Amino acid sequence: MSSLFQARVGAYLRRAANHADSRICGRHYENLLAYLLEAVPGCQIERNSLNSYGTEEVDITVANARLPQGLPMLPDLFLIECKNWSRPVDSTVLGYFVNVVVDRGCTLGVLAAANGITGNQEHRTRAHAIGASALVRGVRILVVNKDDLEGLTCPQDFIKLLQDRNLKLTAHGTIFLG
């Protein structure tokens, strides 16, 4: 199973990196995150949901049954935003995502940012500052990047990655990478 899993993750990442149309690259990145979440026991997803006003789109909404072999430490519902950008995601975009998480009544958002976020996690600058202020507001933001995803060998690795980021968020008081 793990070699098939790794092959699929690699294929999604190659497609996400190698298409001339950036929208299609982004869609492949979303497809990868959907594949990973569907491999987690107890997770059900809905993709590309607009709010009733048509002003906010959520890439992936996750219903989490919190099974012991899945993601029991994460809330019942959370949101995923995918940014397959060639540069780090900035504080404005992260702040907007935090507001979407709040507007949808969630307490957790996962940002899959291919090249991470701006600023310095130790000094809590730029986007890292938004992560720290979100936590004070009761909103948890976990960030995973392309390097994290390339290292996955099985669904349990993805579970462990999210568990680790969630733990480190509490321990360090801000978004933690690496």
Q: How would you portray this structure in words?
A:
The protein has about 180 residues and is an alpha/beta fold. It is about 45% helix and about 20% strand. The protein contains 6 helices and 5 strands, in the order H-H-E-E-E-H-E-H-E-H-H. Strands 1-2-3-4-5 form a 5-stranded mixed beta sheet, sandwiched between helices. Helix 3 (about 90-105) links the parallel strand 3 and strand 4. The protein is globular.
Task: Give the biggest sheet.
Answer: 5 strands, mixed
Cα shape: globular
Helical fraction: 40-55%
How many beta-strand segments?
A: 5
In which order are the strands of the major sheet placed? 1-2-3-4-5
Instruction: Report the oligomer.
Output: single chain
The proportion of residues in beta strands is 15-25%
The parts where pLDDT drops under 50 for at least 5 residues are none
How far is it from the N-terminal to the C-terminal residue, by CA?
26 Å
Gyration radius from CA atoms, angstroms: 15 Å
Mean pLDDT: 92
Helix count, DSSP H or I runs of 4 or more residues = 6
Question: What would you say about this model in short?
Answer:
The chain has helices at residues 2-17, 22-38, 91-103, 127-136, 146-150, 155-172, and strands at 43-50, 57-64, 77-83, 108-113, 140-144.
Feature tags:
five-stranded mixed β-sheet; alpha/beta; 178 residues
Secondary structure: elements and pairs:
Blueprint: H1 2-17, H2 22-38, E1 43-50, E2 57-64, E3 77-83, H3 91-103, E4 108-113, H4 127-136, E5 140-144, H5 146-150, H6 155-172
Parallel strand pairs: 3-4, 4-5
Antiparallel strand pairs: 1-2, 2-3
Helix pairs in contact: 1-2, 3-4
